[in-house]
Amino acid sequence: MSVVLKLGYMLALLGVGLVAKSTGVVTESRRDRLTVFAFYVALPALVFSSTYAQPISEVVTPTLMLGLWAVMFLMIGVSLLVHRSVAGRGARSVAIVQSYHSNFGFLGLPLVASTFGPLTTAKASIILGVGSLTQVPVTVAVLVSINDADVAFRDELVEMFKTPVIPALVTGLLFSYFGLGVPSVVAAGLDAVASLALPVALVCVGASLSAETGSFDVRTVGSVVGLKVFLMPILALLVFSAMGSDWSTVQAGVTMLAAPTAVSTFVYATELGGDPRLASMNVFVTTVVSVGTLLAVLRFLL
Q1: What keywords were assigned to this record (predicted)?
Q2: Do 101 and 139 contact (CB within 8 A), yes or no?
Q3: What is this structure's pTM?
Q4: Distance of alpha carbon 200 from alpha carbon 14, whole angstroms
Q5: How far is CA 36 from CA 85, 175, 200, 238, in A?
Q6: How many angstroms separate the Cα of 134 from the Cα of each of 17, 160, 227?
């Protein structure tokens, strides 16, 4: 499938989710069931199947880890600087976290898996695991500190470690390290389930998108879009290239970090004192715009 067709396919699936939601075909309960399948079944299957057969020394590399952290913390710093004057704590905190918090799971990894080879996909799985363990605590800390939210930080971290992606990644890396195999029937089943990650995740994302009506700060939304889907992939390309990363690392790193703002940031914003209307709008706009920017990214990296 060509890059243009692939991005058209993505846009179509997002549209299916939006239309299904607006027509009542996908109700909130049905969307939640689809999300549970994608998050607890398809995505862990994709993470495990992409890592267990790859040499761990080629997957977990210094340039991958250091490059990921360098880009993420540089973007966190830029976000704090750019959004320092946004009026209102709730809006400022949301603008900051949504300028760096990437949708690694429901868009990034499935897109990499459907576009690049197994080694690149394995590295993207590492980015999903390590990136989530990095950006989630930072996001919670930013929202709690700016909004003075009354929440136990420890409880939020405990919930993060309950996500099924982390044990799936650890298990896959252990299989790789000890050279353990998987029966062909099991491997085929895992691959079949993993192949559903992208279509199901995209429909879920589409059904979760909501552009809140009413007034909102166009400048703030525009700056979030500019930082998240334009600056972040460019910075990722510069950082990974400057570190002398191999091409599979560049492909995984740039594509994953080019993903739009994660839908989960809306949940965090709602729970931790952020502006939910702005959070919803930012998720919607970055996701729609990212269809075009990801097209450019993939055409460059292939």
Answers
A1: Cell membrane, Membrane, Transmembrane, Transmembrane helix, Transport
A2: yes
A3: 0.94
A4: 10
A5: 38, 25, 10, 36
A6: 29, 10, 18
* pLDDT more than 90, % of the chain: 73
8 Å CB contact between 102 and 232: yes
The percentage of the chain sitting over the pLDDT mark of 70, rounded to a whole number, equals 94
Q: How far apart are CA 283 and CA 278, in angstroms?
A: 9
DSSP helix/strand/coil, 267: helix
d(CA 259, CA 219): 21
Closest CA to 169 of 134, 211, 123: 123
Distance CA 271, CA 255 (A): 29
Q: What is the identity of the amino acid at 293? A: T
Torsion angles phi and psi, residue 288, rounded to 5: -65, -45
Nearest Cα residue to 240 out of 86, 42, 74: 74
SS3 87: coil
Tokens 């689809």 sit on residue? 34
CATH number listed for the domain at residues 3-208+218-301: 1.20.1530.20
SS3 61: coil
